[in-house]
């Protein structure tokens, strides 16, 4: 094991990732496994650096100027030449002109260096902000750049002439090469810094670590089973626990599992159709960008046409309601098999393609959170496909089956108003997600979280079978609501949807095109990482306005079920807990990443989700 060179608390000089610049940092820790030092910059930013990127402060002592090192003999020779009787004063004039030339050369070189470094800094700053979805300085600091360009233009014209006729000294040429090499370094800064941080193991474990994730793999399927069994009861009160358990053999049916497989592969077929545009995702740690086909809305239209054809040919869609438990168990079994496949294939995945949050080295934890970031079979992205297609579209199909089951069970010629509201609200949510499919590419599910049991079970089981809980509840527990009440609930849902959509649209436009004229009014706090923290618009109102809109919509989905039982409001309670957990995770991550800038942001935007409350 190599000996450790720098001790905790020692103040040293650390190289900023992707550049040749060194800054004063303090060593705060050392990882014996990865041999990386954790250092803290003056602004609070913490990074992990290799030992080769750290130097002692003594190695940065200023060197003496070159002029002071000239030999006395040269000074004497110059003096004697200037006093030659045959050339009175000529040597002095030559010395003065040479001095002026040297000063002009130094001035011209300094000006060119300043301008080039300024341009490179602006390029690096703008590229970094575009990568992270923050506003760049385009359109804001153009005036200063033009003034500098006008100021240095005559000197640069002279410089072009010197370049054309190769009138530079070797020292100037070497300095020029160093200056222009900075451009390549700055262009690769983002990818280099990310690559250096790709391989370290996951240190901070979420969800209670290994024990917590193991318990969640047992509790999540049990929770789904419990909720569905309770909805079947005549009195779905929490006091009636536990509900009557069905026989184990009644929970499995091969035909149902075949339908689940058919549904999954049908959506995969729609995904592979060469329709819709192809877009680039955000850069990976290696700097590479994956391509994604945006055709989720087309898949929804094709699915709707297929369901319409089945209904036209008298197919009983209520089969879903009659075998709802079997469908849930089959989907859970499929998600477990998919998770095993994902983990096994991730063992052969290159280190830089692993998920930053699922590389702990613990089997259970990595299996749950996802070991590989973007598992693909050719161009077929498994995580991106499961994020919106089988579960989300399946949610709408299940809701429709519940609506038809209610009409059949109660001999209704039309569905109840409560069922119409639930179907309509949730249909709007799904269609919106598919219409704005490109926005999912900037979410943490795609950019940060690996694809393991957590996302596989969530996308294929939790979303279609728990999110449809209100519709499933209304089939056996009909609720009569008046038109004024229905109108009030509709207004509430519209408010939540407006907040949710406008906040997400603002964020996504901001990440994709920070120079969008529609976002010119937005202000931000700059950070040491080159990113900016929005302090105006929806993101200056609360830190997570999209979460606020989600919670309001979830409440509107549950209100049509009435207040006889708390079971339909499970989704609201779950959603609040989920978003509070996500918000706490975001807070911890941003505080570590942005340092003092995040503290300034929190002072500027004090409320997290609920204004004046939390």
Automatic annotation (TrEMBL):
Pathway the protein acts in: Steroid biosynthesis; cholesterol biosynthesis
Name recorded for this polypeptide: Delta(14)-sterol reductase LBR
Recorded GO CC terms: endoplasmic reticulum membrane; nuclear inner membrane
Low complexity bias spans: 55-75
Biological-process GO terms, alphabetical: cholesterol biosynthetic process
Family: Belongs to the ERG4/ERG24 family.
Compartments, record wording: Cytoplasm; Endoplasmic reticulum membrane; Nucleus inner membrane
The keyword DNA-binding is annotated on this UniProt entry: yes
Any one GO molecular-function label of the UniProt entry: Delta14-sterol reductase activity
SMART domains: TUDOR (SM00333)
Main localization category: cytoplasm
Basic residues composition bias: residue spans: 76-95
Region (Disordered): 52-110
Transmembrane segments: 211-230, 250-273, 294-313, 325-344, 455-475, 481-500, 521-542, 562-581
Annotated InterPro entries: ERG24_DHCR-like, Lamin-B_rcpt_of_tudor, Sterol_reductase_CS, Tudor
Span of domain Tudor: 4-62
PROSITE patterns listed in its UniProt record: STEROL_REDUCT_1, STEROL_REDUCT_2
SUPFAM superfamilies hit by this protein: Tudor/PWWP/MBT (SSF63748)
């Amino acid at each position: 094991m190599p000996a450790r060179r720098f001790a905790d608390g020692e103040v040293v000089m650390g190289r900023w990732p992707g550049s040749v610049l060194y800054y004063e940092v303090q060593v705060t820790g050392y990882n014996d496994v990865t041999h990386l030092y954790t250092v803290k910059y003056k602004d609070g930013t913490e990074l992990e650096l290799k030992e080769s990127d750290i130097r002692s402060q003594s190695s940065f002592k200023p060197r003496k100027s070159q002029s002071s090192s000239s030999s006395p003999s040269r000074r004497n020779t110059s003096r004697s030449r200037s006093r030659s009787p045959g050339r009175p004063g000529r040597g002095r004039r030559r010395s003065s002109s040479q001095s002026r030339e040297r000063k002009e050369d130094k001035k011209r070189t300094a000006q060119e260096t300043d301008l080039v470094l300024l341009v490179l800094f602006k390029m690096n700053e703008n590229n970094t902000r575009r990568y992270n979805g923050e506003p760049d300085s385009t359109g804001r600091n153009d005036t200063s750049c033009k003034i500098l360009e006008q100021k240095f233009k005559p000197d640069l014209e002279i410089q072009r002439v010197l370049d054309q006729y190769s009138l530079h000294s070797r020292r100037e040429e070497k300095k020029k090469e160093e200056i222009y090499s900075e451009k390549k370094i700055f262009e690769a800064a983002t990818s280099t810094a990310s690559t250096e941080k790709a391989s370290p193991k996951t240190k901070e474990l979420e969800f209670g670590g290994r024990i917590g994730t193991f318990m969640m793999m047992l509790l999540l399927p049990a929770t789904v089973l419990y909720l569905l069994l309770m909805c079947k009861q005549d009195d779905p009160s929490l006091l009636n626990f536990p509900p009557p358990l069905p026989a184990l053999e009644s929970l499995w049916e091969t035909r149902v599992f075949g339908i689940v497989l058919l549904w999954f592969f049908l959506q995969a077929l729609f995904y592979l159709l060469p329709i819709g545009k192809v877009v680039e995702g955000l850069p990976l740690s290696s700097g590479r960008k994956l391509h994604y086909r945006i055709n989720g809305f087309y898949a929804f239209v094709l699915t709707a046409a297929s369901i319409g054809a089945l209904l036209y040919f008298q197919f009983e869609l209520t089969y879903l309601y009659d075998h709802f438990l079997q469908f849930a168990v089959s989907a859970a079994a499929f998600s477990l098999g998919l998770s095993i496949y994902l983990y096994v294939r991730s063992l052969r995945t290159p280190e830089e393609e692993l998920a930053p949050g699922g590389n702990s080295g613990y089997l259970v934890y990595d299996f749950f959170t996802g070991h590989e970031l973007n598992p693909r079979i050719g161009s077929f992205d498994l995580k991106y496909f499961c994020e919106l297609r089988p579960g989300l579209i399946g949610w709408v199909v299940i809701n429709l089956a519940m609506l038809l089951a209610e009409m059949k069970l109660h001999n209704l010629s039309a569905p109840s108003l409560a069922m119409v509201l639930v179907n309509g609200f949730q249909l709007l949510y799904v269609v919106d997600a598919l219409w704005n499919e490109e926005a999912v590419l900037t979410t943490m599910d795609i950019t940060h979280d690996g694809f393991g049991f957590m996302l596989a079970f969530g996308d294929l089981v939790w979303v279609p079978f728990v999110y449809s809980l209100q519709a499933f509840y209304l089939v056996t527990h009909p609720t009569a609501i008046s038109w004024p009440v229905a109108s009030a609930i509709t207004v509430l849902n519209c408010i939540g949807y407006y907040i949710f959509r406008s906040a997400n649209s603002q964020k996504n436009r901001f990440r994709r095109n920070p120079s969008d004229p529609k976002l010119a009014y937005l202000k931000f706090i700059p950070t040491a990482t080159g990113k900016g923290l929005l302090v105006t618009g929806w993101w200056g109102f609360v830190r997570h306005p999209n979460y606020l809109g989600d919670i309001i919509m979830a409440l509107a989905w549950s209100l049509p079920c009435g207040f006889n039982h708390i079971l339909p409001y499970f989704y609201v309670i779950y959603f609040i807990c989920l978003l509070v957990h996500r918000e706490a995770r975001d807070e911890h991550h941003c505080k570590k990443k942005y340092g003092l800038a995040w503290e300034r942001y929190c002072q500027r935007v004090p409320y997290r989700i609920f204004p004046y409350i939390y």
